[in-house]
Amino acid sequence: MNKQLLLDNLRTIPDFPKKGINFRDVTTLYKNGECMREMTEALYELYKDKGITKIVGVESRGFVMASALAARLGCGVVLARKPGKLPATVIKESFSKEYGVDTVEMHIDSITSDDVVLIHDDLLATGGTAKATYKLVQHFHPKKVYMNFIIEITDEGLHGRDLFKDIELTTLITV
């Protein structure tokens, strides 16, 4: 995988959404066809032999690569969304993030105990969103759970990975 291509196309927005936060904007990767191909192929190579049956895409940037990879792997996509966005009965989990508190929800019929699940989001920073999503997925007692992020942020003293000692976690690039 061409990590430099991804790094060269990643936009950083200082002081967003509040002062002191350097927001990593993956939309610049999504709009570039070459970056999309690189990410899709890299994810496919990581997960093609894992038996993935469902990919949980986390609101909302996680939906993009979850869908692209699911199409490539031939598996389903489950949406982990903010409150009030899913139309049927949901389970929910609240979490803290570096600039506030939020909640993530999933439909109660999203995953079965026979599923092998990959949780995917655009970036790993403090790990709050990922941990809440992981707790939701664990509610279903799937056979196996993996996690993946496009970006892992470590340059600002963030250690989200430390929350996941018991799970196989991969990232495409680290900043």
Descriptive account of the structure:
The protein has 175 residues and is an alpha/beta fold. The protein has helices spanning 3-9, 27-30, 33-47, 62-73, 128-138, and strands at residues 11-14, 22-25, 54-58, 76-80, 90-97, 100-107, 116-124, 144-152, 168-174. The strands form three sheets. It has a five-stranded parallel beta sheet, sandwiched between helices. Strands 1-2 form a two-stranded antiparallel sheet. The chain has a two-stranded antiparallel sheet with strand order 5-6. α3 (33-47) crosses α4 (62-73). The longest helix has 15 residues, at 33-47. The chain is globular and about 40 Å long.
**Overall geometry:** globular
Total of DSSP H or I helical runs spanning 4+ residues: 5
Cα-to-Cα separation, first versus last residue: 16 Å
Number of strands: 9
**SS strand fraction:** 25-35%
Based on helices, strands and strand pairing, what is the structural class? alpha/beta
Q: Helical proportion?
A: 25-40%
* Strand line-up in the sheet with most strands: 4-3-7-8-9
Series of H and E elements: HEEHHEHEEEEHEE
- What integer is the average pLDDT? 95
Largest sheet: 5 strands, parallel
Radius of gyration: 15 Å
Uncertain runs are: none
